[in-house]
Amino acid sequence: MASDTPSSTTIGDPPRIPGADDAVTAEDRLAAITGFADAAKASATAAADFQAQIAGALTEAKAKLTELALVAGQTANTKTRLASEESAIAAIHADMQAKLAEVTNAATQAVAAVTAITDQQAVIATKSAHIQAAQEHADKVRADLDRTLTAARS
Predict the structure, then answer these.
(1) Which of 85, 115, 137 is nearest to 145 (CA)?
(2) CB contact at 8 A, 16 and 8
(3) Which of 2, 21, 4 is nearest to 12 (CA)?
(4) How many whole angstroms separate alpha carbon 93 and alpha carbon 87?
(5) Using CA of residue 54, residue 60, residue 62, residue 68, what is the dihedral sign?
(6) Could you report the per-residue pLDDT of 68-124, keeping only the tens digit for each?
(7) Are 28 and 22 in contact (CB under 8 A)?
(8) Calpha distance 144→150 (Å, rounded)
(9) Of 113 and 25, which is predicted with more confidence?
(10) What is each CA distance from 92 to 22, 89, 100, 107, in whole angstroms?
(11) I want to staple 22 with a disulfide (CB 3.0 to 4.6 A). Which of 18, 48, 73, 83 is the partner?
């Protein structure tokens, strides 16, 4: 029983063989898969480059951290040394204040001694003037007595 319209499902039709349309579709799919594979390779290469950059940055950061640790250690040593020097300066300052007090005391004593000497010199000068006046008076009295004695003997 044959019909006027051909049908691919009718009995007696030959089996379907993939045609040119199917080949184009497979080539397109192969090209797409190849494109995906190439993109994946490019992404892997870029990821490897980024990993290398990250590893370099990490190495540099570790070096900077080591440098910072060294600087921190030096800073701590400097701080300790400065604290020690500050203590030494404070001790020197206290010693200098004590010596200044001693010098001030000695200067006060020296000024007092100068004042006492000046006062004593004034007293000595006054006594010397009295002694000088007494000597002059004694000389005058002796001269008068000598004249009186000479006049009484003559």
Answers:
(1) 137
(2) yes
(3) 2
(4) 10
(5) negative
(6) 999 999 999 999 999 999 999 999 999 999 999 999 999 999 999 999 999 999 999
(7) no
(8) 10
(9) 113
(10) 102, 5, 12, 22
(11) 18
Residues shown for the chain: 154
Question: Both tokens of residue 34?
Answer: 């190849």
Phi, psi (rounded to 5 degrees) for 3: -115, 170
Helix, strand, coil content of the chain in percent (nearest 5):
85, 0, 15
Contacts of residue 6, defined as CB under 8 A and 6 or more positions apart, other chains included, come to 13
The position carrying tokens 């640790």 is: 69
**76: exposed, middle or buried (Cβ count in 10 Å: 0-12, 13-18, 19+):** exposed
- pLDDT (tens digit, 9 = 90+) per residue, 32-80? 899 999 999 999 999 999 999 999 999 999 999 999 999 999 999 999 9
Show the tokens assigned to 147: 């004249």
pTM of the model: 0.43
